[in-house]
Description:
By secondary structure, the chain is α+β, with helices and mostly antiparallel strands. Helices cover 37% and strands 24% of the residues. It has three domains: 1-50 and 189-214, no CATH class; 63-180, Arc Repressor Mutant, subunit A; 222-473, Bira Bifunctional Protein, Domain 2 (BirA Bifunctional Protein, domain 2, 2-Layer Sandwich).
Amino acid sequence: MSHVLHDIEKQVIKVLQSEPNLTEEGISQKTTLSMDQIRRGVEWLRQKKLADVTETTSISLSLGKNGLEALKNGLPERRLVTLVQDGPKTFDEIRSSLHGFDFNAAIAHAKRNDWINIEKTDTGSKISLKDPDADVPNDSDLIISKLGERTIVPTEFDNTPLAEPLKSLMERPDFIIQHEEKTKTVSLSETGKKIDLEKLDSGAIDVEADVPHVHAARIHPLNDTINEVRETFVHLGFTEIIGDLSQSSFWNFDALFTPQDHPARELQDTFYLKGLNAKQLATPTQIKNVSSAHKKGWRYYWDIQEAKKMVLRTHTTCVTIKYLADKKPDEARIFSLGRVFRNEKVSYKHLVEFNQVEGIVVGKHITLRDLMGIQKEFYRKIGLTKVKFWPTFFPYTEPSLQSMVYNERLGKWIELFGMGIFRPEVTKPLGITKPVLAWGGGIERIAMLKFGLDDVREFYNNNLSWLRTASKCQ
């Protein structure tokens, strides 16, 4: 098959046909191409299977800061031996010449080499040579001397008596530095070697050449999941409501019967908007009733100033509870979907900003069984069939449940939505007379299950290779 080649590719092939193996720098020296052009040309040829790229790593050694000091003045242990050559010395006498790290290192390595004795006396510890007349060999001195101010490859010490001392010396801080240098060598494949550049210059067109691969734009996998969740609740007969990202502590916490000394309201868990307080908190009746519920239920002084503090909402329940307080519907099926914020340490399963969906059902005869049925039907519609429920505790629902979904890939149950029936302490102060089923959870966790991810941060890493194939992961 004939090939249509760019001029850059032709220049690279011409050089490699005369010299089979060259680095990209070597190709640059033999052509008028820039390094950027050469890298592009080599990659084009590699994709066409006309060139091969071999990457090698070379390792070299040189003296670090402490190694250069040892080259000049000797290793600490060698200096210690010299100090006590003419007789025992106290620790204080030795410290006058060997300071700080050198003192400790000298004693440690001299003891390991079995060169010295340490004797405790009434006036303090003294150090002496075990055999003052014996020659004290030190392979580390020889290694330092060999390296000098040069850079050498570590293989020079392989299969020699210096191999182990070198390994030991490299463990000491800043004595020997290891350098790694990666080199790419380019060569032509068998097909590339056979290309006749003179025939290619005839202007022939390769009608069988592959067309360029085009990556069509697509919706981000997380947005795909958000849209699917929204569509699923709409199909189940729910109506979406929208609220502000910033909320007063009254609607984010107090209206949901969360005490003002609850850990979730600390700066470590919640983002407060510095210097901002809500101007219009709620109606006087709502404020009075919520205050009374807290005083009666939690037995403490309820501070309206705490309730006025503005926060980045920690859940979307604050949107739905305000909707219920204002509308007081006899029946309702609504949900709220959007970003929420938690002041948490980022990890494989936690983010400071994520997406949450939360819904409620209001009705006269609804029960916890209805809530479980709604959840099961929701999970079924998005492809999650193994579901069970565990009892748990939430400040504003009683009874409360945690839905668990089985992850086939991990072979274990995963927590998803929390749910329950709003407590009377939440509904009665706001004039809501009918039972309210409520649930909520993070959408990223659902997306992780759908796309087989173990780390939630992968959705925000902008990994194009994964994003282009994410649809195949479902």
